[in-house]
Amino acid sequence: MRILHRDAMRMRLRCESEDDLWTLAQFVQAGHRFGMVGERRDSTTGGLEGGRAKAAERRTMWILLEVLNVEHHTFSDALRVHGTIVEAAFDQGQHHTHVVETGDEVEVQSHAPFRTVDVQLIEASASAALRPKVALIVVEHDEVILFTVAQRGLKEGMTWTMRGGGKRGDERTSTSVKEAFLTNTAKEIAASLVGDVPVVLAGPGHARDRLGAALRISAPHLSLTSVGTSIGGRSAANEVIREGLAGEVLADHAVSRETALVEEAMTRIQTSGAIAYGLDHLRRAVDEGAVETLLILAQLLRGEDGEGWQQMCEAVHALGGAIVQCSSDHDAGAQLDGLGGAVALTRYRVD
To answer: In the chain, which stretches have pLDDT less than 70?
Structure first.
């Protein structure tokens, strides 16, 4: 996310990634005003021409909406903002839907100063723009899966496999066939990666090293990190993130930080440590000023009880605690959701 202009009740932003669309979906609320360049059919240009019906022309213009609702799906490449037109060349009062994609510039206006939690989310997204996405490749002897580690989750991409039915057992175990499979896969991976994308190779066996060697031939410019895991598939990708196996390559990504904090929370729960979860327990911890870090799902702050959760966050912040707004679009976020959507790492045990 790039912040082009900012004041207390107005922001102009440029969306530069799918993560930014997720952030914008959390930031824009019903009642906000949302503007960008869009298209509308000008009904005054339609009618009959030479005895034939003439379609109304589409005109490009600035359209400002009073927001009714926002739609966004995980890892989708578009955000839909529905509302009524309050500013445009024509059709004021009519319904319109803005479809926001990466590269679009938008303006968000509020009738009151933006909430602190919303400003923090935008600032975090702007800071994350400096960090590249990472290609995480899980390698087994007969299957290779390419994942993209974005700031807010793990997206599964292409899969190359030798698995399947049929009487091909001897063929699949042939060394030459395996090497040809890994060589061809390396070429296709190299062709699919655009720019200087850091690459992490993970997996439980030696196939990982052989694919790494093939990648260094096919794409010598790539920065490769190889780490061993105890299992394959998506579980291996989660293990890399959860255990911090990729070191600094993934350390600054939001998904890595959120996963590490949720893992710490689970450890403290299992050992009856300094942890608070459940609304009543959290309130006691906040009232005592014991909260060191509050992990909370971003969607919880914007749901039906959002105002109460926001007040809790403000109290934590006032007493020197940290607020981490998490996504539910990765495994650790799903764990946090199972704990009620919020958990606090505390300075001491709160009974």
So the answer is: 46-55, 74-76, 130, 164-173
